[in-house]
Amino acid sequence: MNKTFEAKDVNLAGINSSLLEVNIGPQHPSTHGVFRMNAVLDGEVIVSLKPVMGYLHRNHEQIAENMSYAASMPYTDRLDYFNSMSNNLGYALSVEKLAGLEVPERAEYIRVIMAELTRLINHIAVIGFLLNDLGAFFTPVLYAFREREKILDIFEEISGSRMMCNYLRFGGVKRDLSPAILERIRGVVTAFPRFLDEFETLLTKNEILCMRCQNVGVLSPELAINASITGPLLRASGVNYDIRKVDGYSVYPRFQFKVPLGPKGDVYDRYYVRILEMRESLKILDQALNTIPAGEIMSKKMIPFLKSPRNFKPPVGEAYARVESPKGELGFYVVSDGTPQPWRYHVRAPSFINLTILEDMCLGQKVADAIIILGSVDIVLGEVDR
Amino acid sequence: MDTEKVKADLEKALGPVALKSVRSSLLVENAQDLPKVAKFLKEDAAYRLDYLSSVTASDFIDYLETVYHLYSMEKKTGPVTLRVRVPRTDPKIPSLVSLYRGAEFQERDNFDLFGIVYEGHPDLRRIMMWEGFEGFPMRKDYLQEDSETLESVDVEWLEKNGVKVPEAAKAKAVELRQQGKRALAERRVEDKG
Amino acid sequence: MMYFGEGVVKGMMVTLKAFVASYFKGPEDGGLFTVEYPEQRLPEKENFRNFPFLIYDNTPDNLRCVACDICAKECPPKCIYIVREFDKDNKPLKRPAVFNIDHTVCMNCGICEEACPFDAIYMDHNFEIASAERNENLLFRKDKLLKSNEYFHKIRPTDATAIDERRAAAEAKKKAAEAAAAQKAAAAQAAPKPAAPGTTTPPAAEPPKTV
């Protein structure tokens, strides 16, 4: 939408006013990173809003063209730095599709457990930060981070690092889960619903939250589909599209879970859809922990390449694989030319594309509402800028 | 989805449109046919591909190409991949923003990094690099400036602002200016062995 | 909703309960869970990977690294720099003369540990490396990187025991193969018949060095 604006004079009982152009960001505590919004304001009402990004552009795609496939795996951790296991999973799926690798069953179950734990840590952190943007200064954030810490401790025990896990490999996972770790994960999963109930008592029927979030930033389903929106943002507008159900990648078809949808598509629905998705993730985790089989964790074809990743040469071709990351559809497009380095490597980042309709949602709202609409879109700058 | 079936349906519906099957995707040989093909795939009752998942550009040395992955949210069906190839010297592809809003930022990204011009895009300007940046970084023949070697303009600016520049750096800058070259970094190529 | 404001009041009850409980309950039940670093520390986790270090077996001269340069090639941000050592006659030795890792570049991914064929480089737990000066103190040279096998056992017991067992088994297999070859050679020398070519088993822990 390209509207040209001139400073128009509005006569309001003898007052002449004109439009004000203001930069929200790039240094701002509520923009979730280095992100700028060029807002043109009429008083406090937004007339136009253009997102400006690129402050964290590290040219991840070109770095990957100079490295072997496995050496790019630690760099994918740093794309969406909140959920590193999902990024690893997307990249591993795309290279496995390219090279035709089979993953053993136990490794698939471990991957699903890691992906759902990642979904939990993302959604509670997002809700915490949304409440931060609303002005509830840090209490919900720290309640949420208390639970996030428990899961990050598990990640540290398994993979060696809390956030930059680098745990998945092509054809399996790096290290096996011992029974002690499985017990700890089970403990977290059993204690989580009680925390979610307490969190909901604190927040869901809170009048201040309801008055500020309902009917703010409404997104219609037709516009959402046309603008390539995915993730909880799309499902809050009522469109039933979850890649775990549609594509059925990994072993997700074996688990039973529902896909929560929101009625209206405002900020409150996006908050509540995330809470419901967390409950569904707990169900998946429960089923996975009960039925995880014993077995190997690495495909036989890839074991010789574990010690020498620079010799791994997938066949010539291309592959596009996508996963349901907690923020939307995360896709990896890899083109190989038979050498150990990829010819082209592209990341379809959900946060980047979900920002397309930020302007449409914010028109006519006030600046304070623009901040919480941005909080509900749930961006992370590592992904937006790659 | 089966590319032969998609190709047959497209040729039946749109008449003379040059298509070729390349590696489980459809190559639209004439770039100007792209909006027609996309509109048919979006609105036809059998396909209803209403979700444009990703718009990717690549640089194969003879040509630049853009790859579109289309899915259907209504019917929950799988990807139909379209490709368009354009020459390096004058890369122009019609934009799909009028059909799919989601292509807006991705086409800007491809213009910024590869230089492909999308005709009909409402706001085609750089998105990742800063305004005033010259060059297209992701192309295979892009040479980056070497940040450690000074050029004559750098030496002049530094001396004007009171910084003492070592003689060796000044001599190198003068040499580069006499040869008419810019200070470019060597592109590091991985040991292919 | 019985009265306007009930949601807020119920929420305040939750925070009040947490506030009061923080005086009585422990960290697991909803009390205070702050660990006052550096006076108190959390227990170290075994698998935590922070920065690589080189292993020596008994003395620092007996290091396992043979300067094959594989970790430097695999390292994604290329933070390892190795120069092989030469002896007085300019023949290459199987030791590194220079082994530098730049701490400001290393991203702690652990790929060097996975790629090393000689069990020479592993990930350490050391994260307290703050210093006032960047170029001297954050470029770790060979002397700062060398740590003993006992230290490795202390920080990562299960991994260290498994690796020691694997190396001992490989050593034993190599010795048995050499003993069998020596016996066959001795038997062949004793009898004047042309002996079958001695079976040479490849040494177990030395893969071919690829460049």
**Which spans of chain A of ≥5 residues are poorly predicted at pLDDT below 50?**
none
- SSE pattern of chain A: EEEEEHHHHHEEHHHHHHHEEEHHHH
Please state the overall shape of chain C, judged from the principal axes of the Cα atoms: elongated
Radius of gyration of chain C: 28 Å
Shape summary of chain A: globular
Instruction: Provide the CATH top-level class of the domain at 50-163 in chain C.
Output: Alpha Beta
* Major sheet details of chain C: 3 strands, mixed
| Overall mean pLDDT of chain A | 88
According to DSSP, the number of beta strands of chain C is 6
* Class by alpha and beta content of chain A: alpha+beta
Count of DSSP strands of chain A? 10
Quaternary status = heterotrimer
Describe the protein's topology.
The complex is a heterotrimer of chains A (386), B (193) and C (211).
Chain A: E1 10-12, E2 15-17, E3 20-24, E4 36-42, E5 45-52, H1 60-65, H2 73-77, H3 84-99, H4 105-134, H5 139-159, E6 168-169, E7 172-173, H6 179-203, H7 207-213, H8 221-226, H9 232-235, H10 243-246, H11 267-291, H12 303-307, E8 317-325, E9 328-336, E10 344-348, H13 350-354, H14 358-362, H15 367-377, H16 381-385
Antiparallel strand pairs in A: 1-2, 3-4, 4-5, 6-7, 8-9, 9-10
Chain B: H1 3-14, E1 19-22, E2 25-28, H2 34-43, E3 51-60, E4 63-71, E5 80-87, E6 92-94, H3 103-114, E7 117-119, H4 152-160, H5 167-179
Parallel strand pairs in B: 2-5, 6-7
Antiparallel strand pairs in B: 1-2, 3-4, 4-5
Chain C: H1 6-24, E1 51-56, H2 70-74, E2 80-86, E3 92-102, H3 111-115, E4 121-124, H4 134-137, E5 139-140, H5 142-145, E6 146-148, H6 149-155, H7 157-190
Parallel strand pairs in C: 1-6
Antiparallel strand pairs in C: 1-4, 2-3, 3-5
Helix pairs in contact in C: 6-7
How would you sum up this structure, described in words?
The complex is a heterotrimer of chains A (386), B (193) and C (211). Chain A is of the alpha+beta class and 386 residues long. Helix content of chain A is 47%, strand content 14%. A 3-stranded antiparallel sheet of chain A has the order 3-4-5. A 3-stranded antiparallel sheet of chain A has the order 8-9-10. In chain A, helix 4 (105-134) packs antiparallel against helix 15 (367-377) and helix 6 (179-203) packs antiparallel against helix 11 (267-291). Helices cover 29% and strands 21% of the residues of chain B. Chain B has helices at 3-14, 34-43, 103-114, 152-160, 167-179, and strands at 19-22, 25-28, 51-60, 63-71, 80-87, 92-94, 117-119. A 5-stranded mixed sheet of chain B has the order 1-2-5-4-3, covered by helices on one side. Chain C is α+β, with helices and mostly antiparallel strands and 211 residues long. The termini of chain C are far apart. The chains are: A alpha+beta (386), B alpha/beta (193), C alpha+beta (211). Chains in contact: A-B, A-C.
